[in-house]
Amino acid sequence: MSFRSYKDVLKYYMRSERANLQGLENSPYRGRKGQVYVEFVPTRTKLINAFLEAGRILGHPTVDYNAPEKLGFGYVQTTTRSGHRYSVAKAFLHNHKGRRNLHILPSSIVTKVLIDPTSKTAHGIQYVRNHLKYDVRVRKEVILSAGPIASPQLLMMSGIGPKENLNTVGIPVINDLPVGRNLFDHIAFPGIIFKLNTTDVSFIEEKGATLQNILEWLQFGEGILASPGGVEGIGYIKTSVSDDPEEVPDIELISIGGSLVSDGGPHGSKAARRGMMISENVFDKAFGVIDNTDTWSAFPMLLHPKSKGYLELKDNNPFSYPKIYGNYLTDQKDVRTLIAAIRHVITLSETEPFQRLGAKLHRADYPACRGLVFDSDAYWECAIRTLTATLHHQIGTCRMGPVSDPAAVVDPELRVYGVQNLRVVDTSIIPRTTSAHTNAPGIMIGEKAADMIRSTWKNG
Ligand SMILES: Cc1cc2nc3c(=O)[nH]c(=O)nc-3n(C[C@H](O)[C@H](O)[C@H](O)COP(=O)(O)OP(=O)(O)OC[C@H]3O[C@@H](n4cnc5c(N)ncnc54)[C@H](O)[C@@H]3O)c2cc1C
């Protein structure tokens, strides 16, 4: 039982999925009986049609990007049920609250895993609830699923991690492992924005946030509010910078029925700008003149960054945030790949489907990039370094690998090396970057781990 191949993991993706995708009813790659609802977005602008058409003109077929085709463009698919978000908490916790063998303790923070330092065996966890500390003992094993930041933090709080960092913060070392050292993330550049000479073709928050639209969404799950932040299409491309011998993408394009400026204006939420931590000053200088107008954009997301980060403990207080070093764009190849992707988006905008809508690249005036020739590589590098947005796809901080892998923290059955009765089951175990977002891989890991755990304890 391992995660080695597409075939190994496909059945677990399918097991979790309840796909309701028009046109893909007979796809052998999509699950229909799982717990997580997957749909197309019910509301579409003309911009998604232009994106798919432009893609086909440039040789990118329209595909189901959640099937074996690795390259191509498609309509975005979301974990929603009738236009309403369907989270993993809803699917796997809320629906099973009544089970006698499931105890959910809300507002409880785990502070460490209890491990016997002599036998190196996990025997429970410690948690804090309402300022009180509790110990819970386990009969079989501890499964840590706190995510790619908190799982490594908890391992380190419990004495499993790089000995230099643990010694510095005063935590006795139980096992010296490279916890937190293999941090990868997906970053994107949201700053390629095209003005349109056609009005009412894109999502604009101020126009869309009406009582009628709210009621339409609440009642029927339709309308502008059913859109996942304006995302309409996904495209996988391989740029000329890639030296991968296989036909695998190095960039994902996220096509938006609008752009960063679509939620601006005097009453706009500016959620996109604020979520990406773009300062008001930079935003106003770069995009102020097109704020709240009809636009199209496609964010290139770097799928397989060469730049690697890490995280470590700041101190031995479990409530302190760990120190995270993203090290984004420290490898120049990542910059070159993003620039190649930007140029490809510009080429897409020059095709007839976008020209019908009058698409014209906006010349963003970033304060830090003044003096650089617009559209030169130096300008784009500066722009990318100014607007680097994380998609929060952190992985790899409790890397899974064989015993021969010096970077591995857990074995292929997700058991922490050198410690008995302790598994990590979340996206922190993903050893290398995926050509996809990380939510579905996280669910697949959970499904597969369930089989591993059942198999371990099948005899009691
Ligand atoms: C803003 C945002 C947007 C995203 N959008 C997308 C998207 O559109 N598509 C996509 O595929 N992915 C998306 N992702 C990424 C995706 O959500 C994550 O990759 C995925 O949720 C990771 O799953 P996980 O189980 O590893 O960790 P998590 O989902 O983080 O689960 C860890 C859980 O452990 C809990 N926890 C942590 N520490 C403790 C503790 N000490 N005690 C008790 N409980 C604890 C947390 O509260 C959390 O519930 C997004 C992430 C973010 C943050």
Throw out a few tags for this protein:
Glucose dehydrogenase, flavin adenine dinucleotide binding, globular, GMC_OxRdtase_N, GMC_OxRdtase, single chain, flavoprotein, 460 residues, FAD/NAD(P)-binding domain, alpha+beta, 3-stranded mixed β-sheet
Task: Explain what the structure shows.
The protein is an alpha+beta fold and 460 residues long. It has a domain of 122 residues: FAD/NAD(P)-binding domain (3-Layer(bba) Sandwich), CATH 3.50.50.60. The protein contains 13 helices and 20 strands. The strands form seven sheets. It has a six-stranded antiparallel beta sheet with strand order 3-13-14-15-12-18. Strands 1-2-4 form a three-stranded mixed beta sheet. It has a three-stranded antiparallel beta sheet with strand order 7-8-9. β5 and β6 form a beta hairpin. α1 packs across α13 and α10 crosses α12. It is globular, with a radius of gyration of 23 Å. The relative contact order is 0.17. The model has no long low-confidence stretch (mean pLDDT 96). The site of flavin-adenine dinucleotide has 17 residues, from β7, α4 and α13.
From the 3D coordinates, which CATH architecture of the domain at 103-169 and 402-456 would you assign? 3-Layer(bba) Sandwich
Q: What is the CATH H-level superfamily of the domain at 103-169 and 402-456?
A: FAD/NAD(P)-binding domain
Main pleated-sheet profile: 6 strands, antiparallel
Low-confidence stretches: none
Structural class: alpha+beta
**Could you report the average pLDDT, rounded to the nearest whole number?**
96
Distance between the termini: 20 Å
Which small-molecule ligands are present, each listed once? flavin-adenine dinucleotide
Helix content: 25-40%
* The CATH top-level class label of the domain at 103-169 and 402-456: Alpha Beta
According to CATH, the fold-level topology of the domain at 103-169 and 402-456 is FAD/NAD(P)-binding domain
Walk across the major sheet and give the strand order: 3-13-14-15-12-18
Shape: globular
| H/I helix tally | 13
Give the oligomeric state: single chain
